[in-house]
Every structure is written in structure tokens, then in C-alpha cells.
Amino acid sequence: MSLENFINKQKNASNAEGNRLSTTGSNGGKLSAGAALNKKIDELTNKKTEAAKSSIPNSTSTILASRQTNGAIRRLSNATKVATVPTEEAIKNLASSIEKQVEAEMIANSAHISFVIDRSSSMYGSEDEVVSNTNNFISEQAELAYDTKISVTLFNDSPRVKIDGVPAKNRPMLDTYRPDGTTSLYDAICYAAKQADKHARQKHNIHVIVTDGEDCTSSLTIDEARSLITAQRRRGDYYLLLSNGPNAAELAKSLGIDPEMAADFDKEGDGFKIIFDTINKIIGDLRKKGTIDHDWADAIKKHKQNPALTVRDVARLATASTMKLLM
User: Fold this and answer.
1) Nearest 5°: CA angle at 144, between 170 and 268?
2) What's the whole-model pTM score?
3) CA nearest 81: which of 30, 136, 29, 33?
4) Which of 49, 74, 274, 320 is deepest in the core (most CB within 10 A)?
């Protein structure tokens, strides 16, 4: 039975029960038990429908479509089956319990994504791709029911915070990206890490470093950068490193990042779109199952091998690989 049919059936049952109780004088008030309960069922159903509209392809299920909320609707419906009419206080208590469940799940699925993106002169030609794909990513996160905070730090010979822990639902947009100058990677990592620490921790805290060159002008050392990264990883933060220059795995290891969480990428063609699509999927996986797949960077690696591949090409290759495994 579909959820809609189930709800309609329960509402009809609650109306009948409410009318019976009202007729016998058991309810002691102007509003029947069925009507009171149906009002609360309608509120939950409307919220559920509204939240479901915010889901996007490949994202995790939205908060108000969770088992807890479905269970709450059923508990409200089942309340009509008992002879005693629920008091106003009982209905308020149940509503409060539902709100607490919703709040707990929102906290359990909250995220803070901190991007540290190279804008040294060697990134020239990537302006439109960086801006458009960053902003598309933010817009997609804004459509979800869960809360995602966004930070973006751009760096060349010095770091500059463009977006500082702003909720995606506020739709903060990256306005400019002008490559010039040198690469102060260690300074940027340390600066962004300290900025992230100023914000309340979320359930999932992810740092994404995107660079195309080795550090050459930082005032801070690699040891200082590694120390900050190690401390944040120990408390549960995730670090991903994407490199279009130095070997990603080797650079990651030198910084205290798990080499398995590093990937070489190509900035040509759909390179940046594939990166942001990958990060989107990672957040969805963390919310859904609490882990990042071991093959999280497959799409990025395929594009690196052949930069002419589009997002659609990469998806088609991934589907073909999956079919082979199933045969």
C-alpha cells in the first residue's frame, strides 16, 4: 500500500472513531479526536512532501522521508484506534518528540565543506570552470533538506577567504576567480584549517585541497601544515587532495593526508565538473552510510587518463564496468 493510500485510510478511520467518541460525549470538547489527529497527520505529510521535493539525483534520502517520521505518522494514526481520546497535552508531547527526532537527524547529517583552491598564474584559463562549478555545487547542496556549510579559500602567494562557513541554503556564490601570482600551498592549508576551527563542528567535516603546483613561497613550513591536518584528521575530519601538478599520492603523504584520499586530475574539459560531482557524491555517501567508497576518485582518474572524456562519457564507462562485475 502506498504512503498516500495508507494516510487516507487512517484519516478515514480516525474520522469514524472521532465521530463515535463525539457522539457518545467522550471527547469533552468541540474538536473530535479524529479531526485533531488528522490535523497533525496533515502537517507531517505536508512537511514530508515539501522536503522530498528538495532531493536531487544520487543524493541521500531527505530528512522528513526518514523512518522516524514515517513511524511518527503511523503512531498518530494508531492513536485513533484506542478508546481514550488523546488530550491536547498528549498530542503536543508527541509532536515535541517528533521534532526532537528530526533535529537529531539533521545534526547527524550536517556537513561543513571547506575548499582550498589554487589560483596561482598556472591556473590561468580555468576561471569560468572554477566559478561555475563551485556555484553549481553550492546550489545543489542548497536544495537538500540537510544543512551544509560552505567555506572557500582561494590562494596564490597568499590565502584569501571568499566564503566563510556560510550555509548553502543562503546560496553564497563565488563572485571572482583571477589566477595570478605564485603558490603558497602550506600557508593556505594552515589558514583554511584555522578558519574552519572557528566554526561549530558539524557531523561531517570535509577539507578539499585543489592545486596544480608545488609550494614555493609559503612563510609557514610543511611540518606546520602537516601538524594541523593530523590534528583535524584525528578528531574525525576528512582531507582530500586533488593535484594537477605534483604526484597527488606523494604530496598527500608528505602533508599527513591518506594517499588513498588523493587523486591526480586534469583541469581541461570537464575536469572541474567531475571533481565537484565527485565531492557531491562523497557527501551523499557519508550521510547515507558514514563511509567514503574506496573507488571514490574513479571518475577523476578516468578523465585524467583521457581529458577528452565528458561527464556523460565517464558515467557511461562506470556503468559498463558495473555491468561487467555483475555478469
Assistant:
1) 85
2) 0.73
3) 33
4) 274
